[in-house]
Design brief:
The complex is a heterodimer of chains A (335) and B (206). With 335 residues, chain A is α+β, with helices and mostly antiparallel strands. Chain A has 2 domains: 4-232, Rossmann fold (3-Layer(aba) Sandwich); 238-329, OB fold (Dihydrolipoamide Acetyltransferase, E2P) (Beta Barrel), CATH 2.40.50.140. Chain A is built from 8 helices and 18 strands. In chain A, the strands form 4 sheets. A 6-stranded mixed sheet of chain A has the order 6-7-8-3-9-10, with helices on both faces. A 5-stranded antiparallel sheet of chain A has the order 13-17-14-15-16, with no helix packed on it. Chain A has a 4-stranded antiparallel sheet with strand order 2-1-4-5, with helices on one face. Chain B is 71% helix and 0% strand. The chains are: A alpha+beta (335), B mainly alpha (206). Chains A and B meet through strand 6 and helix 2 of A and helix 6 and helix 7 of B. Chain A: Belongs to the ABC transporter superfamily.
């Protein structure tokens, strides 16, 4: 159990800067999700904390120790990889025990710890099997088990759920979160899936092009995005970005207007924008209506399924309250 | 003679596997200056078969006083570009995450090699062992050159020596019987390793 802090951490490969200085203090037991599109540097950041990648400048500390120059094993971390990275020729038991065996833990204690982890993860019937005889979800659990048995002070997850199918992903997401709560181990979790980020994080770091655009609690990030990128990336369907001319009393530097799809209503009276319905997607509980506005831009409306569903091609008016709109300047920053 | 052949073939097969495993490990997993250069140098030796370099090799072995010895029979044939190349290709298909997971688990490079890479290459090693054993067993030209002492002759040479020269009458039944006997060890190796051998050639264990 430990705190983790990053002080102006930068990374460059040759002349290309991939991470432009990240600062964060992570409290003991906190679950931090690093989220961003492919190539934003999120995995690189995690690998720097793990010690698999060198730090170009800045300082990473785990607990009270600066760990920049330490080998991964000396950092007291455990990592779960995207493709699990289980040793194919070893049984589940041996896979989980390997780290302890190297550390020279007595045999009795290894067995006890592995069995405890296996019980926690419901892996007991599979301890003698090889990884290839397991399903994706079970392999995922073994990878988790390998991390747990070492009782590290920090867990690192590198997109651990991206190889699972949609249903299993939802289930494992919950399991990982519960497990982390129960063990109370500080965790860093990398994902490109904003749903995982929203559901699992105590706090999340939204990364874009090597910069942490916003660090905050999920709902805070969702409700109050600091940049246009964050607004567009977090939330599905993404935030609508509209012309500022559609609203009155805007700050002078405002260039774009962001409104969440659920905050727009289809209304005949008091509409601020007008457009033609391109198509609507009925998802059961809700309906997404895609509208092409008069100025050629697009907007998505998320409305309750009980409301009348507009015909395709119909002219509709869109309304939203002033409190729900967010303005961005020409550089995509809040204003 | 059978024993000489056996020692030579085993020496060549095992030696080649050890050396090529280690060199492939170095080339794939360590970043040292001239890594590519060394790989290509090893690769280049594929173009120089034993026969091409046989005179200088003989000179060197004679200089070391290794004529008529097992080391003389084995060492010149022990480095293998083919095997190195094969293991390099195999190691490159092993996911990087595996090496990283081992690092996080605290395994030193050699520990990773012995605990993870070696067991994973088991089938490849078996396949290669079969091929190299037969290669070593069937060597003819090299043993002919460096062994003059009959006690160091190999079985393949022995069969050749039974052939009639000049006016001798050939004792074909004996020659044929010897040939059959000479085939037994390679056959035993193939059969005993058949299962692994086929797996090594057909599927990759990942």
């Amino acid at each position: 159990m430990a705190t983790v802090s990053l002080r102006n951490v930068k990374k460059s490969f040759g002349k290309t800067d991939v991470i432009h200085g990240i600062n964060i203090d992570i409290a003991d037991g906190e679950f931090i999700v690093i989220v961003g599109p492919s190539g934003c540097g999120k995995s690189t950041l995690l690998r720097m904390v793990a010690g698999l990648e060198t730090v170009t400048s800045g300082e990473i500390s785990i607990g009270d120790r600066v760990v920049n120059g330490l080998e991964p094993m000396e950092r007291d971390i455990a990592m779960v990889f995207q493709n699990y990275a289980l040793y194919p020729h070893m049984s589940v038991f041996e896979n989980m025990a390997y780290g302890l065996k190297i550390a020279g833990t007595p045999k009795g204690e290894i067995t006890a710890r592995v069995e405890e982890a296996a019980k926690l993860l419901q892996l007991e019937p599979y301890l003698k099997r090889r990884p290839r005889e397991l399903s994706g979800g079970q392999r995922q659990r073994v990878a988790m088990g390998r991390a747990i048995v070492r009782k590290p002070s920090v867990f690192l997850f590198d997109e651990p759920l991206s190889n699972l199918d949609a249903k299993l992903r939802v289930q494992m997401r919950l399991e990982i979160k519960q497990l982390q709560r129960r063990l109370g181990v500080t965790s860093l979790y990398v994902t490109h899936d904003q749903v995982e980020a929203m559901t699992m994080a105590d706090r999340m770091i939204v990364m874009n092009g090597g910069v942490a655009d916003q660090i905050g609690k999920p709902l805070e990030v969702y409700g109050n995005p600091q940049t246009e990128f964050v607004g567009g990336f977090i939330g599905s369907p993404p935030m609508n970005f509209l012309d500022v001319a559609l609203a009155k009393d805007m700050p002078t530097q405002a260039a774009r207007l962001g409104v969440r799809p659920e905050h727009i209503q289809i209304a005949q009276t008091g509409a601020q924008a007008h457009g033609k319905v391109l198509y609507s997607e009925a998802l059961g509980a809700e309906t997404l209506v895609h509208v092409k506005l008069a100025d050629g831009s697009f907007a998505t409306v998320r409305q309750d399924a009980s409301l009348a569903q507009p015909e395709e091609g119909a002219q509709v008016g869109l309304a939203w309250s002033k409190a729900d709109q967010i303005t961005f300047d020409a550089h995509g920053q809040r204003c | 003679m059978m024993l000489n052949s056996l020692i030579m073939a085993m020496g060549i097969a095992i030696g080649k596997i050890i050396i090529s495993l280690l060199s492939a490990f170095a080339i794939v997993y360590f970043r040292f200056p001239g890594r590519r250069l060394f790989f290509w140098l090893i690769f280049l030796t594929l173009m120089l078969p034993v026969e091409v370099r046989i005179v200088p090799t003989y000179e060197v072995i004679a200089g070391f006083g290794m004529l008529n010895s097992y080391s003389g029979l084995i060492f010149p044939l022990i480095a293998s570009a083919t095997a190195t190349f094969l293991f390099r290709q195999f190691f490159m298909t092993v996911p990087d995450e595996l090496a990283e997971a081992a690092r996080v688990d605290g395994a030193s490079p050699m520990r990773f090699f012995f605990d993870i890479l070696l067991p994973m290459s088991r089938t490849n090693i078996a396949a290669l062992f079969v091929i190299l054993f037969i290669y070593g067993w069937n060597q003819y030209l090299w043993p002919l050159l460096i062994t003059t002492d009959p006690s160091m002759n190999t079985i393949v040479m022995g069969i050749k020596q039974m052939f009639p020269s000049g006016d001798d009458v050939a004792d074909w039944p004996v020659i044929m019987a010897t040939s059959i006997l000479a085939m037994i060890p390679p056959v035993v190796v193939v059969i005993s390793m058949q299962k692994l051998f086929i797996r090594g050639l057909v599927d990759s264990e990942k």
